Amino acid sequence: MENKTTDQRVLDYIKMLDEEKRRLYVEKKRKDLIDLGMFEKVYGLEGCDPSEYPRTETDAQTGRTVRYKMVPVEVSDEDYEQLLKKTEELGMLDKPKETSGIHNSQTIGATIKKISEVLFVISLIAVALIITFVALTIKDLTVALIIVLVAGLFGFSEWVLSSFLYGYGELIERVSSIDRKLK
Question: What is the number of structural domains in the chain?
Answer without folding.
Answer: 2
